[in-house]
Automatic annotation (TrEMBL):
Protein name: Glycine/betaine ABC transporter
Phylogenetic placement of the source organism: Bacteria, Bacillati, Bacillota, Bacilli, Bacillales
Keywords: Cell membrane, Membrane, Transport
Gene Ontology molecular function: any one: carnitine transmembrane transporter activity
InterPro entries, per the entry: ABC_Gly_betaine_transp_sub-bd (IPR007210)
Organism annotation: Oceanobacillus bengalensis
Length: 295
């Protein structure tokens, strides 16, 4: 007759064997996933995101190529990889509508090379408060949350037939109480012109379109001018544009801010809790930059 003790020992042995097999399988899958990663899909060369990505690759001695691209092309590659459940690493940031539509995660950055939480600042030219006090007051008041920006971006980011202005109009209509707090006590103007610079990223397109429409409600004629980050800072410092809502600090726009901070007015964050870094789909069995291939 088989003893209960012997049966228990056999059962424990089987359980330990199965756990060991699962552990080996997970390690194998993780190893195979990272072995397939030879590149990190980036965005436009020269952007702040690409600058800090290059520093991170160097700091961790990663054996990967940082592939320059555009935001749209990077998103297309990420979507295709998710569809096929393939390994992929991209430079991405939050807020971004891709986080609302997909299970994504930032890789941990133990060395802090990609920066921690960021804030997006509103900046204006010197003299704006005296020449356009209503615009200045509103821009100083404007502040929203990550979820707000994602809501606007998700409408035009996923569907190219939806114009950013239409998405911004819908958000304003749905959040009229909040908008009214930003403009409370601010005097309307009679068809005065104001120009805002923005970078061609969906985050800045979202905020700039919302702000432009509210300025128009106040009576301004608003011109939106797409510029590279460095040119936007330079244009603001010389008074060629009146304002912008695009400065990621303390990391993303740090070099430009240091160069021009004495020649512009920083109104502070219009959004807090932003983040940028290396992002992978949740199905990938890696959690840290240190899990990527090294030289």
């Amino acid at each position: 007759m088989i003893s209960k003790k012997w049966i228990a020992l056999v059962s424990i042995g089987i359980i330990l064997f199965l756990v060991g097999c699962q552990s080996e399988s997970a390690e194998k899958n993780n190893s195979e996933s990272t072995a397939e990663i030879t590149e990190i899909v980036g965005i436009e060369p020269g952007s702040g995101t690409m600058d800090i990505a290059e520093k991170a690759i160097e700091s961790y001695s990663l054996d990967v190529e940082l592939l320059p691209s555009t935001e749209a092309a990077m998103i297309t590659e990420l979507q295709q990889a998710i569809k096929n459940e393939e390994p992929i690493v991209v430079t991405l940031w939050q807020p971004h509508w891709m986080f609302s539509e997909n299970d994504l995660k930032f890789l941990e950055d133990p060395k802090g090379t990609l920066g921690a939480s960021e804030n997006i600042h509103t900046m204006v030219r010197k003299g704006l408060e005296e020449e356009h006090p209503s615009a200045y007051a509103f821009l100083d008041n404007f502040y929203w949350e990550v979820e707000d920006m994602n809501e606007v971006m998700s409408k035009f980011g996923q569907d190219e037939s939806v114009e950013p202005q239409v998405a911004a109009e819908e958000w304003i209509e749905d959040n009229r109480d909040r908008v009214d707090t930003w403009t409370e006590g601010i005097a309307s103007v009679d068809d005065k012109a104001i120009e805002l610079a923005y970078t061609n990223y969906e985050t800045e397109i979202a905020s700039t379109n919302v702000v432009a429409l509210i300025l128009e409600e106040l009576g301004y004629t608003v011109e939106l001018t797409p510029l590279d980050m460095g040119i936007a800072f330079e244009s603001l410092s010389t008074g060629e544009v009146d304002g912008m809502l695009i400065a990621w600090l303390p990391v993303g726009a740090a070099s430009y801010y240091e160069s021009y901070k004495d020649e512009i007015i920083d109104l502070g964050p219009n959004l807090e809790g932003a983040q940028q870094g290396f992002v992978v789909p949740e199905y990938m069995n890696i959690n840290s930059i240190e899990d990527l291939p090294t030289k």
